[in-house]
TrEMBL record:
Belongs to the class-V pyridoxal-phosphate-dependent aminotransferase family. It catalyses: glyoxylate + L-serine = 3-hydroxypyruvate + glycine. Its cofactor is pyridoxal 5'-phosphate. Residues 49-336 form the Aminotransferase class V domain. It comes from Methylosinus trichosporium (strain ATCC 35070 / NCIMB 11131 / UNIQEM 75 / OB3b). The keyword NAD does not apply. Keywords: Aminotransferase, Pyridoxal phosphate, Transferase. Its EC number is 2.6.1.45. It comes from the Bacteria. The keyword Transferase applies. This is Serine--glyoxylate aminotransferase. InterPro entries: Aminotrans_V_dom, Aminotrans_V_PyrdxlP_BS, PyrdxlP-dep_Trfase, PyrdxlP-dep_Trfase_major, PyrdxlP-dep_Trfase_small, SP_NH2Trfase/AEP_transaminase. Pathway: One-carbon metabolism; formaldehyde assimilation via serine pathway.
Length: 397
């Protein structure tokens, strides 16, 4: 068949950027306006209050930066730490690796702890390292709620407990780029000092906003922190945001989009959003099992409800599955990154999705695997996911 026109919508199943609901797209379709007008705070002030509800913090301060998640990492570090400060960071996937790399380039002394890819943060090791740090030289622990490269969710409550057990004053920084707005995030309960997220995943927006939530302890640490900061200076934002403004020209359409995104999340209800993500993920996991394949996550306790990385059998190239899915079936699957390149393909199941959309992705992945010769039973993954979805549908009749 000819490729001169590609009918229908592209099936976007990378784990971010995610599908943008039509109403959010429409909300971003705005004419330019004066971002210093007296009316502007009517748009912006509620954004900060609503964001805090998503991060689940009462006492924290929300920030909206024109950046992607990587900019959020940088903002977190430069506003709270000094050159040469020691931090603990565990590496178990490409994004934990990139955060470590950025921290080192900025000038931190990173205690790098490698964990097996397919596992996540290791609280016991964090506790041990902190207990050994009698002089409290370690200033922060970096944890990653959801490692998007391997489809692994870590227990941030357990990381908090490890810090408390060690009676250590280190701050806790959490990457929530592929979790906040999709998985329950409990900033205050977990004592998270800096939480970092981005607009293009659970918030169902284009990339372009780094969304942070910062504890009073981390804001205070900023008073003596000596790393250079300018564009991402928390204090410039604290001052301007207090009256609903920004220290520089904000990305206006994205702010309108964020308002609608928050409306969408609260209309569905955060608990329902999290339950839906779990339900959709369970269908994908059932499909993987029915194919006779394994997720990259080593044990079920690591399973992520926002993305599943699927290991292809020895001798097959996962990149080929992704290429065929895209070229033949207009389905975008997530690539394997770095250490797991060619070994896994990923199905992102976060954002504005429902059961039939997932069944389309599972069917497409199944066809692409068959096309490259992976011996899965045709229809097996779809049937297994259907059984999960029919047992407890999102919509109650
Ligand atoms: N952290 C995680 C867990 C991610 O998944 C990503 C991107 O996918 C990032 C950080 C980097 O975010 P960005 O690409 O928005 O800079």
């Amino acid at each position: 068949m000819s490729n001169s026109r590609i009918p229908g919508r592209n099936f976007l199943f990378v784990p971010g950027p995610t599908n943008i609901p039509d109403r959010i797209l429409r909300a971003m379709n705005v004419v330019s306006e004066d971002h210093r007008s007296p009316k502007f705070p009517e748009l912006t002030l509620p954004l900060f209050t609503q964001l805090k509800k998503v991060f689940k913090t009462e006492s924290g301060q929300a920030f909206i930066f024109p950046a992607s998640g990587t900019g959020g990492w940088e903002a977190a570090i430069t506003n709270t730490l000094s050159p040469g400060d020691k931090v603990i960071a565990q590496r178990f996937g490409q994004f934990t690796h990139l955060w470590i790399d950025l921290a080192k380039r900025i000038g931190l002394d990173v205690i790098e702890q490698d964990e097996e890819w397919g596992t996540g943060n290791n609280p016991e090791r964090i506790e041990e390292t902190l207990k050994a740090d009698k002089n409290h030289e370690i200033k922060a622990v970096f944890a990653t709620h959801n490692e998007t490269a391997t489809g692994v969710t870590s227990d941030i409550g357990a990381v908090r407990k490890a810090i408390d057990n060690a009676k250590h004053p280190a701050m806790l920084f959490v990457d929530g780029v592929s979790s906040v707005g999709s998985l329950d995030f409990k900033q205050d309960e977990w004592g998270v000092d800096v939480a970092v997220s981005g607009s293009q995943k659970g918030f169902m927006l284009p990339a372009g906003l780094a969304l942070l939530s910062v504890s009073q302890k981390a804001l205070k640490a900023g008073e003596t922190a000596k790393l250079h900061r300018a564009y991402f200076d928390f204090q410039d934002h604290v001052k301007a945001n207090a009256t609903g403004y920004f220290p520089y020209t904000p990305a206006l359409p994205l702010l309108y989009g964020l308002r609608e995104s928050l409306n969408v999340l609260f209309e569905e209800g955060l608990d329902q959003v999290y339950a839906r993500h779990h339900h959709l993920a369970e269908g994908v996991r059932a499909a993987v099992a029915a194919w006779g394949l394994k997720p990259c996550a080593k044990e079920s306790k690591w399973n992520s409800d926002t993305v599943t990385a699927i290991l292809v059998p020895e001798g097959f190239d996962a990149a080929k599955v992704i290429e065929i899915a895209y070229k033949r079936y207009n389905l975008a699957l997530g690539a394997g990154l770095s250490k797991v390149a060619g070994k896994v393909f990923r199905i992102g199941h976060l954002g504005d999705l429902n059961e039939l959309m997932l069944l389309g992705a599972i069917a497409g992945a199944e066809m692409a695997m068959l096309d490259v010769g992976i011996p899965v039973t045709p229809g097996s993954g779809v049937a297994a996911a259907q059984a999960v979805y029919r047992a407890n549908p999102i919509l109650q009749a």
